[in-house]
UniProtKB/TrEMBL annotation:
The lineage of its organism: Bacteria, Pseudomonadati, Pseudomonadota, Gammaproteobacteria, Oceanospirillales. Its main location: cytoplasm. It is found in: Cytoplasm. It comes from the Bacteria. The keyword Aminoacyl-tRNA synthetase does not apply. This is Zinc-type alcohol dehydrogenase-like protein. Residues 16-334 form the Enoyl reductase (ER) domain. PROSITE patterns: QOR_ZETA_CRYSTAL. The keyword NADP applies. Homotetramer. It comes from Vreelandella venusta. Keywords: Cytoplasm, Metal-binding, NADP, Oxidoreductase, RNA-binding, Zinc.
């Protein structure tokens, strides 16, 4: 089968950073489904692993943690899927990724693809939908419906993949007032279209802008990038006993700054369940099926920003460069092999 992989952790400008290769088609067993990959999305995790994690000597590492495709065969313990089913998923960090024509995935972290979306539009959502859903409903323990009326959520760096679905989930499913941040006019317009009640600029003082909007302090903050740079403003923006969630990897974080306001800290990492084989792994299957239903009902929409063409090394290198430039609106997706 065709695949894109690498043998050395390199800068994306190096041709060997991602290569077109041939690998054998894997065989499913146990809870695995074998998926014929139709479309993939690229995430910051792809770029971080490519730049920092080398495979064993002589081996190829295949990236990719967002895909939509068709089940072609299943392991003996599979009960949720059969050949021919259209599925979507974000995969498992400890296994080969979706930048290949065929991929093995544990059925417990696979969901049915929304029937209203094509494969490219569907591939844009799984990783970010899981991350946003787990952050909002599991880590921050926000409840759908009217329970949080009057409470305010600030989402920092909201125009990327996770922010684009988090804003939708919060504005469509909860009673939170959603304040999103973006620094460019086009990304601010994107967030308004997705349902943000206010959009402010994270390159200026967040707390001052909130005061100018007469929003005041907020109950919850989710920081999606450059958290270390924003920490002082996050603390200033939060109410006493507020909640602070993040997904990025700051080199250092002064947690003592949270003490005087008794702020709680919540980290979300969507690979935790698959990485540790938690007893509730199947929660991600249920989550993805629920998101698919919301998409098919027209409540949520795809966050596809750019379709970068066929799935090959050249196009994937360009996609990695886009993400590393940190100027994406929504998600970059590739579709089909050539």
């Amino acid at each position: 089968m065709k695949a894109i992989g690498y043998q050395q952790a390199l800068r994306i400008q190096e041709e060997a950073s991602l290569c077109d290769i041939e690998l054998p088609i894997p065989e499913p067993s146990g809870h695995d489904v074998l998926v014929e990959v139709k479309a993939v999305a690229v995430n910051p995790v792809d770029t971080k692993i490519r730049a920092n994690v080398a495979p064993d000597q002589g081996s190829w590492k295949v990236l990719g943690w967002d895909a939509a495709g068709i089940v072609t065969s299943v392991g003996e313990k599979v009960s949720a899927f059969k050949p021919g089913d259209a599925v979507w998923y974000a995969g498992d960090l400890s296994r080969q990724g979706s930048n290949a024509q065929y991929q093995l995935v544990d059925e417990r972290i696979v969901g049915r693809k929304p029937s209203s979306l094509d494969f490219a539009s569907a591939a844009a959502l799984p990783l970010t939908a899981i991350t946003a859903w787990e952050m909002l409903f599991d880590r921050l323990n926000i409840k759908p419906g009217r329970e949080h009326a009057g409470e305010k959520l600030l989402v920092i760096g909201a125009a990327g993949g996770v922010g684009s679905i988090l804003v939708q989930l919060a504005s469509q499913l909860t009673s939170l007032t959603v304040i999103a941040t973006a620094s460019r006019a086009e990304s601010q317009a994107w967030l308004e279209q997705l349902g943000a009640h206010h959009v402010i600029n994270h390159k200026a003082s967040l707390s001052k802008q909130l005061q100018e909007l007469e929003v005041g302090e907020v109950d919850h903050v989710v920081s999606l990038n450059h958290t270390e740079e924003h920490l002082d403003e996050i603390v200033a923006a939060l109410k006493p006993q507020g909640q602070f969630g993040l997904i990025d990897d700051p080199e250092a974080l002064n947690v003592r700054a949270l003490k005087s306001k008794s702020l709680s800290l919540h980290w979300e990492f969507m690979f935790t369940r698959s990485m540790y084989k938690t007893t509730d792994m199947v929660a991600q299957q249920k989550l993805l099926n629920e998101v698919a239903a919301l998409v098919d009902q027209g409540i949520l929409k795809s966050t596809l920003g750019v379709n970068a063409g066929k799935i090959n090394a050249t196009n994937l290198r360009k996609a990695h460069e886009k993400l590393e430039a940190e100027s994406m609106i929504g998600k970059v997706v590739l579709e089909g092999f050539k």
